[in-house]
Structure to design on (190 residues):
């Protein structure tokens, strides 16, 4: 049983490392293509969020170290993020609708991140603080995108890029540090 738990922990760390790199590359690409076609940029964000939704679902399904309600909430969040991202692709011709759908998907992902910091008391305080801070900042940025749809698309894309950058750094910290429970049992997050 311990070997299975160790394997799952390693698998979760690899997912976190891989998704952290994807988040950061996404942020860099978004900063690089700010002046490009908005439809292509929204399609790119949608594809990344589809990937994130799948990862969130897999993480909730496999991460037996999390409390049951957090596992269930991750599975549900993954499904919702996936559905919103696919809907944004389907509604790609309606730019403002796609932006709102994508921002809601990022908002759900950010809330999920904050839940770790609030409810998973066995993680070190520094890790919980990073989860809460990163989640809160990305929640605020997501809400700015949702309520700022009349803003210039350039500003909205910068907000999306910042959100992806913060999420990527947080995931990399998680994958590299592998927070440890106070009881000594290894735990993986996100």
């Amino acid at each position: 049983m311990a070997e299975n738990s160790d394997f799952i922990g390693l698998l979760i760390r690899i997912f976190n490392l891989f998704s952290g790199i994807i988040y950061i590359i996404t942020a860099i690409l978004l900063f690089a293509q700010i002046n490009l076609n908005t439809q292509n940029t929204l399609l790119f964000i949608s594809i990344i969020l589809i990937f994130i939704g799948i990862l969130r679902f897999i993480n909730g399904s496999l991460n037996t170290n999390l409390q049951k309600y957090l596992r269930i909430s991750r599975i549900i969040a993954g499904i919702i993020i996936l559905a919103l991202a696919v809907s944004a692709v389907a509604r790609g011709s309606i730019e403002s609708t796609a932006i709102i759908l994508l921002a809601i998907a990022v908002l759900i992902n950010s809330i999920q991140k904050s839940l770790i910091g609030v409810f998973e008391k066995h993680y070190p305080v520094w890790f919980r603080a990073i989860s809460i801070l990163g989640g809160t900042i990305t929640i605020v940025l997501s809400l700015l995108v949702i309520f700022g749809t009349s803003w210039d698309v350039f500003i909205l894309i910068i907000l999306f890029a910042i959100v992806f950058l913060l999420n990527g750094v947080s995931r990399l910290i998680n994958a590299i540090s592998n927070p440890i429970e106070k009881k000594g049992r290894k735990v993986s997050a996100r």
